[in-house]
Amino acid sequence: MLAFPQKIVGYVNVWQHLPQRRLETTKEYIDKKKVQKKDEESSQQRKTRLQEIKYKKEKLEDLIVTNSALRFSIPKSHMTKVSRNANMAKLQAGYLFPEIARRRSAHMLKYPDAQVISLGIGDTTEPIPEVITSGMAKKANALSTLEGYSGYGAEQGENRLRAAIASTYYGDLSIEESDIFVSDGAKSDISRLQVMFGSNVTMAVQDPSYPAYVDSSVILGQTGQFQKDVEKYGNIEYMKCNPENGFFPDLSTVSRTDIIFFCSPNNPTGNAATREQLTRLVQFAKDNGSILVYDSAYAMYISDDSPRSIFEIPGAKEVAIEVSSFSKYAGFTGVRLGWTVVPKELLYSDGFPVAKDFNRIVCTTFNGASNISQAGGLACLSPEGLEAMHKVVGFYQENTNIIMETFTSLGFSVYGGKNAPYVWVHFPGQSSWDVFSEILEKTHVVTTPGSGFGPAGDGFIRVSAFGHRGNVLEACKRFKQLYK
Amino acid sequence: MYKLSTFSSMPPAIFLQPRMSHASLKVQEDGIGVCTRVTRNLNMEKLRNGYLFPEIAMRELEHMKKYPNAKVISLGIGDTTEPIPDIVTSSMANHARRLSTVEGYRGYGAEQGNKALRKAIAETLYGDLPIKDTEIFVSDGSQCDISRLQLLLGSNVTIAVQDPTFPAYIDSSVIIGQTGDFQDETGKYQNIKYMPCRPQNNFFPDLTTTATTDVIFICSPNNPTGHAASRKQLEQLVEFARANRSIIIFDSAYAAYVTDESPRSIFEIPGAREVAIEISSFSKFAGFTGVRLGWTVVPDELLFSNGFPVIKDYNRIVCTCFNGASSIAQAGGLACLSSDGLMAVQSVVDYYKENAKILGDTFTSLGLDVYGGINAPYAWVHFPGMKSWDVFTELLEKTHIITVPGCGFGPGGEEHIRVSAFGHRECILEASRRLKSLLS
Description:
The complex is a heterodimer of chains A (484) and B (440).
Chain A: H1 11-16, H2 26-35, H3 43-63, H4 86-90, H5 96-110, E1 117-118, H6 130-142, H7 159-170, E2 180-183, H8 186-197, E3 203-207, H9 211-220, E4 226-227, E5 232-233, E6 236-240, E7 259-263, H10 275-288, E8 291-295, E9 320-325, H11 327-330, E10 338-341, H12 354-365, H13 371-380, H14 383-409, E11 414-416, E12 422-426, H15 432-443, E13 445-446, E14 448-449, E15 460-464, H16 469-483
Parallel strand pairs in A: 1-13, 3-6, 3-7, 7-8, 8-9
Antiparallel strand pairs in A: 2-10, 4-5, 9-10, 11-12, 12-15, 14-15
Helix pairs in contact in A: 6-13, 7-13, 8-9, 8-12, 14-16
Chain B: H1 12-15, H2 42-46, H3 52-66, E1 73-74, H4 86-98, H5 115-126, E2 136-139, H6 142-153, E3 159-163, H7 167-176, E4 182-183, E5 188-189, E6 192-196, E7 215-219, H8 231-244, E8 247-251, E9 276-281, H9 283-286, E10 294-297, H10 310-321, H11 327-336, H12 339-365, E11 369-372, E12 378-382, H13 388-399, E13 401-402, E14 404-405, E15 416-420, H14 425-439
Helix pairs in contact in B: 4-11, 5-11, 6-7, 6-10, 12-14
């Protein structure tokens, strides 16, 4: 018997408008099937067919309704008894960037002739330098040869690549090859770190921040429910970063948490923390016995002398993990390659080295980055590759300057841009989703609403500088027209 | 004593460090530094030793240091050895080169995978089974997918595994917090249901005696026993899952090795769409162990107890914790599924199958009971009354052949050795010779 919720009133009226349809009985169905060319069936096919009928019969039997007022049967689906993970239920809507992509697609359907320019998702657009792709092509071809074929690689990454990363980015910082874990990118690494930390740790994030830190924390069960009034998840410490505090949190107001996520140069604000600020941050982490997860994915975009690695700060090795990526340096957003540094000196409260657990995670829940991507990474770190990467980064930096100048000339308060490929534009008193929609509607340019990165992001729009020069110039022209 | 084996390049002081209790705050004996106040994840503490395969790799390294002149033959870790066919690698090389052109450059791909590849998997590998491309999630391999599925399920579900089984199902379950402690006496983790798979029950769990759990992990063709479940066995399994409203996670990574009529996909069984998730991989199918490509099928009809579609949550996991498989690997996958590509990779699979036959015959000729080998690239050899690590060590010491001790796959694997059939033909033949001379 189907139970109907009491609050449905007049449902019979609704059904009246639907076409009258009588489901065939099981017997009628079987007879119908018998008429088919069953002599061509193998016994196996017949068995399968009868089994399918058996299941359909079970389904129909479930649906038999004796209530004569109801002329139809509503199909009842099989439900497992497995409870949905309560943590998944806490998540609000979809992950931010697929949402932006959805809105973009909807807009393109609405305006099929519009030339939509995407300065939303931070997706690289310029071709990868040949010195790097030829390294990957060579590796791919080598996999067809006896001498060149390789199977499973070390889950931590190829030794040569680990060594190259250590010497290129951590040369004089005494970070060793064995401290480096090569991965398929920072997003996966963030989740692997969360799996390693488990559900019983507390975390702090900047507000605004890259959504993956918060979302992965929710999924792992570290947080409480989402509180709609403040737009924050319970049990996460949000460290506000705004123009008033120079986009660096006032640490005196931050409660102690086990883990602190910090991204510099920052996505989305574009702000790079100073040496002095990071020294205070490391001290804060030390005083609180916290672990700092430092995201340096945009370090190559720094144009002044802001630190490029947390390990430039003395004492950082005992408090910090650093996550980084080839995505925005080498255009590897689709190729998938990154790394995480876990120093040997980083210890849990019982003295157990964090690196040992991360190694176990990497060996058990991962199987190494693609060997072809790793060959690409190695080519990136050759002298020629490094020079080529710098050129592409320089190209995006020039885009950033153009966007910054545009908004500045229009009288906006503009932040970031100097040390990152993101420009953080202030629209005081306005809802960022409204501004996003208006810009999209009137200029056909996709940006990212600041509130997607946290409540303190509201009133801001993130404009990403990844794009062909022509598109960036065109977008700026349209901004000038809209806001003149 | 805490046995660390996975971190081979760590300095010796840490390597030999005894296990510390987490109750007291201690600075390490070699005074390496100050501790944070972050408590170690208790689930990580529950894990026993290192993950199985890096353990084997470590022993191999030690052995090679001990006997620098010995020609060690590895029939241990199931690592493919034969080159990938040209038709596949050239498409990957072309894709890589095109990334240097304006027209050919691609940035972020859809996290669920390239549309053409998803369609090709649905059409080519699932044929007339009603699997939609939207139900297919392309990944960087099964080992990662297993963990992503565990993230999806969360810590409050119970699981059942075959015994013996591929270790990642158990280890990922421990890490996510679904299990209790490891019990040395039984060799099992509390709160996991172990379903014995022995010759006596035809390597398939006796479902009449199996307690119900939320999730059931089944691998067929099986790693390590090599047994491919029959249609009847899988029908019973689906029936069992439907009656108990459990979710089957069906690992079909070795489907390409099926020789007889055994099903290659759980979805060949009617009614499976409402109870099963299938994971699979290009690793053993196309030699992609290093290239990294796999997929997971989550049917639309699979629902949680509150009616919420599992596929929606899995999609969220994939979008939040992952950023898609490498576009180059995906280009390779597409080439594998062209008609020429399929023929080419299947011929490599056949090569390994021939290896498996040679090894199986060798052990049989020596009077040992051998299982598997027909529908899988693994031979499961019985050494009655002997401990599997002892057999492993003896074989390694006396014939310089690496195998895998059965107990590494669970207590039900004791007295067995898994011999993998991946290797150059001459190595397989040489291994055969050595085994014959040792064991005859």
